[in-house]
Amino acid sequence: MRKEGYMERLKDFLNSGTTEAKIATVALCVLAVASIPVLVMGAAVMGNAVQVFKMFEGSKKYSHKQISSVMDSMKRQRLIEYVSDKHGQTIVKITKKGETKLRAFDIELMKIKKPHKWDGKWRLVMFDIPMRFTKGREALRFHLKKLNFFQFQKSAWIYPFPCEDEIIFIADFFGVGKYVEVLTVENILRDDKVRKHFKLS
């Protein structure tokens, strides 16, 4: 899982006040950032969880009872599990199912960092995805639109800033990474529409 910029996105999300900021999803992400396994079950577990939540300004609205309820809910959904470590203490771990949900959530929060100054180069995302991966192809297109890429052709999208890591992360998540290429090009013959789309002079 990529960690760069992750905490910042979580803080923005947690403080957003939107209806999408469901406590169960927030809790899962916070536990992951806290490098699970770290929570020892018993009297300490809720105290430690609350301390993790205090890293976020918006966490003040979450009570012990709410966090406890979330932990139980995530266990029922098999997003986390309780296991014994080598010292015989019970700890909380995120499951493979939980990690998958976390990666999906990371994509939903994803933003491409814009440098202070454009380097004058274009990033061209191209793909030729087989029909059997229709869902993956449509998911990739959806997220390219969401990230404000300019559709140059049906399977060619343009962005002015470095975005290779983000695009490959998304493509790999949806199982189409090997069909996607990201090129850096110096010039586009007719780039008026592209410059206008990104508000570049």
From TrEMBL:
UniProt-listed Pfam families: PaaX_M (PF20803)
Keywords in alphabetical order: Membrane, Transmembrane, Transmembrane helix
TM regions (residue ranges): 21-46
Gene3D superfamilies per record: 3.30.70.2650
Span of domain Transcriptional repressor PaaX-like central Cas2-like: 116-189
InterPro entries recorded: PaaX-like_central
Protein name: Transcriptional repressor PaaX-like central Cas2-like domain-containing protein
Organism: Candidatus Nomurabacteria bacterium RIFCSPLOWO2_02_FULL_40_67
